[in-house]
Amino acid sequence: MDSGFKSVDCKIHPDEQVLGVCLVDKCEFATRLVCFTCSTEDHSEHAKFIVKLADLETKTTLQHRNWPQVDLAQDVKKYLDQVSFLMEGGDAAIDKLFEEITSQVLTELEKAKKTVKKEME
């Protein structure tokens, strides 16, 4: 793969590398990251929404290809960068990610608690 992304094996077909991302809004499949086999089997009905990883490198490429959801494609690139970071960072990166998620969840729970208390008054 010529992309700047780290090579990632497909979760469904571990002997194949991820080549693209399914950008269907409510994609119901186990993963949006697709290898060749995924793109021709499960995600075949989403074919026009699968973007090659190499095409996510720059907004310019996406604009020339006239993708309707440029910002979403950039979000996917950020997600892939995070996945790559987690794979390279090992346990420490995973611990940090879960600490951030836990903090966000606790903040939202505290907001919900305050709302419920306020409505009970």
What do these coordinates show?
- This protein is mainly alpha-helical.
- The chain has a domain at 20-90.
- It has three helices and three strands, in the order ββαβαα.
- It has helices spanning 36-40, 59-65, 70-120; strands at residues 20-22, 33-34, 50-52.
- Strands 2-1-3 form a three-stranded antiparallel sheet.
Q: Can I get a quick summary?
A:
The chain has helices at 36-40, 59-65, 70-120, and strands spanning 20-22, 33-34, 50-52. The protein has 121 residues and is mainly alpha-helical.
In this structure, how is the largest beta sheet organized?
A: 3 strands, antiparallel
Oligomer: single chain
Number of strands: 3
As residue ranges, the low-confidence spans are 59-69
User: What portion of the residues fall into strands of 2 or more residues?
Assistant: 5-15%
Number of helices: 3
Choose one word for the global shape: extended
Provide the helix percentage. Answer: 40-55%
What's the arrangement of strands in the largest beta sheet?
Answer: 2-1-3
- What's the rounded overall pLDDT mean? 76
Radius of gyration of CA atoms, rounded to a whole number: 18 Å
The arrangement of helices and strands along the chain is EEHEHH
- Overall structural class, as computed from helix and strand content, comes to mainly alpha
The first-to-last residue Cα distance is 60 Å
